[in-house]
């Protein structure tokens, strides 16, 4: 999951085993030491690793390596020791965001008083994020008048990315107030909230956009659909709904990546994504590497959600 506009990507050059700006490119050795320093400093799993041993073994394995990319196997070996599948190293090709025109955007449909809003994952540059939010607002507005029974939010194929545009699109359904938070060892909680159609993290907007849409029926019942493909920011979006008495969750358990990452852009264009905090819901329940089990496991979650919404009253 990505925090504060794509996890507040931290641009760094690595040298002397520390995060530091340099006028010249790092050597493979200083690059490797710098990445290990980031893992040691920021990972919530850092206490699992014997760092002097891991560093010494990584340096021995890197002897004779002449390129920065040649250190990737040593870095990934240490990441494996952390034991958190949400922490990863992406090559420059893997880290490149897709063009704004190619990303999947939210969509909607409505039938028999139930509006279905599908919220896909999002990895994009700012232009892509803007397109995602604009499409989401349009999708919500297109079905708002036909949602007399309530809403289904479909997160079954939301594999993550940037959570803030997702929450911005869903702001009218979430309503104003605290939606969750990030917590981690030795860190003050960072609260997520919705304020006037905008998603916030702490005292800062999470996304630049504001959702101006307003519902004819405020605080409607909402059914959220999940599956094993619901991961990372998809799970954070689910967590934002948990604890609301008018919300039920349907489908299958999620992937178990309900944690947040800091994203460090490395000197060669690679990205280091370090898991730094756990997600918590508005009731203070902490999530993490265990799948989130829905309230109502179902083979046909959309049908089950529709039946549940019709029991909530207000259908026209």
Automatic annotation (TrEMBL):
The keyword Heme does not apply. Residues 1-21 form the signal peptide. CDD domains: Peptidase_S41. Keywords: Hydrolase, Signal. Its EC number is 3.4.-.-. This is S41 family peptidase. GO terms for molecular function: hydrolase activity. The lineage of its organism: Bacteria, Bacillati, Actinomycetota, Actinomycetes, Pseudonocardiales. Transmembrane segments: none annotated. InterPro entries: ClpP/crotonase-like_dom_sf (IPR029045), Tail-specific_protease (IPR005151). Residues 83-299 form the Tail specific protease domain.
């Amino acid at each position: 999951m990505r925090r504060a506009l794509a996890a507040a990507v931290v641009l760094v050059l690595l040298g002397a085993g520390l995060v530091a700006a340099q006028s010249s490119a790092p050597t493979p050795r200083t690059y490797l030491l710098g990445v290990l320093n980031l893992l040691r400093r920021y990972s919530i799993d850092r206490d699992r690793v014997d760092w002097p041993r891991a560093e010494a073994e990584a340096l021995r394995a890197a002897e004779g390596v002449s390129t920065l990319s040649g250190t990737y196997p040593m870095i990934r070996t240490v990441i494996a020791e952390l034991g958190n599948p949400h922490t990863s190293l992406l090559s420059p090709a893997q880290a490149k965001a897709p063009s704004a025109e190619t990303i999947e955007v939210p969509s909607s449909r409505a039938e028999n008083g139930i509006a279905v809003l599908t919220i896909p994952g999002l990895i994009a540059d700012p232009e892509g994020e803007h397109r995602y939010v604009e499409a989401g607002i349009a999708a919500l507005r297109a079905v708002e008048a036909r949602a007399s029974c309530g809403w289904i939010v479909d997160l079954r194929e939301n594999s993550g990315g940037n959570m803030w545009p997702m929450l911005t699109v869903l702001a009218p359904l979430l309503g104003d107030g605290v939606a969750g938070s990030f917590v981690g060892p030795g860190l003050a909680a960072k609260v997520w909230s919705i304020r006037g159609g905008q998603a916030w993290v702490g005292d800062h907007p999470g996304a630049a956009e504001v959702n101006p849409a307003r519902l004819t029926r405020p605080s409607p019942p909402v059914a959220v659909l999940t599956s094993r493909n619901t991961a990372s920011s998809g799970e954070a979006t689910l967590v934002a709904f948990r604890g609301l008495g008018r919300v039920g969750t349907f489908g299958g358990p999620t992937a178990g990546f309900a944690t947040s990452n800091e994203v460090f852009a490395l000197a060669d264009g690679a990205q280091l994504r370090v898991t730094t905090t756990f997600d918590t819901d508005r009731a203070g329940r902490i999530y993490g590497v265990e799948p989130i089990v829905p309230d109502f496991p179902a083979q046909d979650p959309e049908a089950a959600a529709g039946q549940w919404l019709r029991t909530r009253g207000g259908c026209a």
